[in-house]
Design brief:
Layout: E1 31-33, E2 38-40, E3 58-63, E4 68-73, H1 74-77, H2 81-90, E5 98-101, H3 106-118, E6 125-128, E7 133-136, E8 152-155, E9 160-163, H4 164-175, H5 178-189, H6 196-208, H7 217-227, H8 229-232, H9 236-244, H10 247-268
Helix pairs in contact: 3-4, 4-5, 7-10
């Protein structure tokens, strides 16, 4: 017999979906230098992290297959262990301060830079202190209204529209930005009206781009599918994905067994 609750770390039977604890921080406007195609991320209304300053050298970042150019201060990038290692290794004796990131998605990387400078990315996460609830800012009215923003981004690698917050979570994991991971997860939890096909494609991406030790994003998708099981069981995309298989569906099976056990326990408990 299977001991469902004693699986090792490569299974997510032991996890229950929980809410992240990201703190509300302020957003910033990305300034585009259209003449040079270089997008300089500059702080407008927030002090930089301790030890950072706007007089450190500028690093050019060449992002995506189309080589879209960004620029950021060295000290700001160094707050990421990923970029700190690159800066120490690549630029120690080099005068050309350029980093090539051909596998990254420009729209996602732009939000990473926004976070590094401002501690949040558009749309901002807002906290209602009176109700103790969280919400995404109204993109049409809050903070002057920067306009509607898509919840998905096209990923050329999978040739699918994926949830931007999932892409940001996975990117933050590679860059060693734990607070950005928590922020992206909380924001994704506030999204609604997402198609089943987009959720399933994004969940598969999450499984393929996070380590087996991840206990947050994977558990988020498992809990989402279980909560919305009446919708997913009627989805042709769900059937197709299950026929393709993958580790996620074993984790989903175990999570659903645990969910049923929890319900049985509550039912049997004396009132």
């Amino acid at each position: 017999m299977f001991a469902r609750r004693n699986l090792q770390s490569d299974s997510f039977s032991k996890y229950r979906a929980g809410k992240s604890t990201s703190k509300t921080k302020r957003s910033f406007r990305e300034q585009a230098a259209s003449s040079s195609r270089v997008e300089r991320a500059t702080a407008l209304d927030r002090s930089l992290p301790v030890g950072s300053n706007l007089t450190s050298p500028i690093i050019t970042l060449c992002v995506g297959p189309e080589q879209r150019l960004f620029a950021a201060h060295e000290n700001v990038l160094a707050s990421s262990p990923f970029f700190s290692a690159i800066i120490r290794g690549q630029f120690l004796e080099s005068t050309s301060k350029r980093v090539d990131l051909p596998e990254e998605i420009p729209e996602v990387f732009s939000s990473v830079l926004e976070y590094l400078y401002k501690g949040d990315y558009y749309p901002r996460l807002l906290h209602n202190k009176r109700r103790n609830t969280w919400a995404l800012e109204n993109t049409e009215t809050d903070n002057g209204g920067r306009g509607a923003v898509n919840s998905t981004v096209y990923d050329s690698g999978t040739q699918q529209e994926l949830l931007k917050d999932t892409l940001l979570y996975c990117t933050a994991d590679r860059y060693g930005l734990e607070e950005l991971k928590r922020l992206a997860l909380r924001k994704q939890g506030l999204q609604s009206g997402i198609q089943c096909s987009t959720i399933l494609a994004s969940s598969r991406y999450a499984y393929e781009n996070t380590p087996d030790s991840d206990s947050e994003l994977r558990a988020h998708y498992l809990a989402l599918i279980i909560r919305s099981r009446n919708t997913f069981k009627r989805s042709g995309t769900m059937q197709t994905e299950m026929e393709r298989g993958g580790k996620m569906f074993f984790d989903l099976y175990v999570a659903m067994c645990n969910h049923m056990d929890d319900i049985s326990t509550i039912t049997r408990s004396p009132r």
